[in-house]
Design goal:
8-stranded parallel sheet; alpha/beta; two-stranded antiparallel ribbon
Length: 342
Amino acid sequence: MNCLNDLKNTYIIAEMSANHAGSFERAKEIIYAAKEAGADCIKLQTYTADTLTMNCDNEYFHIDNGTWEGENLYHLYEKAYTPWEWQADLKAEAEKIGIDFLSTPFDKTSVDFLEELDVKAYKIASFELVDIPLIDYVASKGKPIIMSTGMGSLEEIEEAVATIQKYHNRIALLKCSSAYPAISDEMNLETMKDMKKRFDCQVGLSDHSMGSLGAVAAVAMGASVIEKHFCLSRDIKNPDSSFSMEPREFEDMVRDIRMVEKARGNIFYGPTEQEKDNIVFRKSIFAVKDIKAGEKLTEENIKVIRPGYGMKPKYWNDILGKTAQCDVNRGTPLSSEMLGEG
């Protein structure tokens, strides 16, 4: 599994979440479509309604606004969860076609289940950033951890990171706006760079915004990991479909990310291979009138112009007033051998 191990390219995660809409065959299709669209990893979520919340209908368990307004938490998670009995087979399908398998656990039982599946890394969701006992249990398994930081204060992120660092796990922190969909105004991608500096770890973006602009911009700013919700079609309605990316959109995003990676390049000064042929079109010092041997160089008979076959412009003040050692025809680039002391 490439996850967090000496990443040379951005690690791109396709989050299936609830987009299987209750169909095992659709879940398999999503894995194949994600691979085809260029994802490095397919990610599931491992929970049940009972491991994530409780079956209660009082006001605390009702969602009053946003994408899931009017839902009861327990019934929402009943609709959204990925059956655990599917997951071994889905992992096998992913491995068969060469795409990494990752999942987000939400309690100790789901961690134990994923350990039995022999997962190679873990994802911590933004909402679980404050579940320090869960993070401690996940970190105790000694595997790389990708952790989203949506809604997290600096102090909360520091506490979660310190919990992981006790076990010396590799870690990547993802900037995340935990709104569905997120708006660009609240993405605050600059935070990624600050997290990288503060925590000395890889950073990235868990992106719930529509389109790919946020993800591509994040890569330009140094993101090592991008996570986007992925579906076969937003017409297949489920709790995550409205803010998920369809295969063609995801493929376009991957293409743009790979182009940005190339453009980002390395620290480099001087002409590139493509530029070398154009160096000649810089300016240099030319004779703009015929100059006889013994004649002085003046602002009337020499000039700094394109192309760049002559002496560099920085020598202009040094050569004014010097004497030509030979005849110099108009249109000839000047060289030091042509000049006397003045």
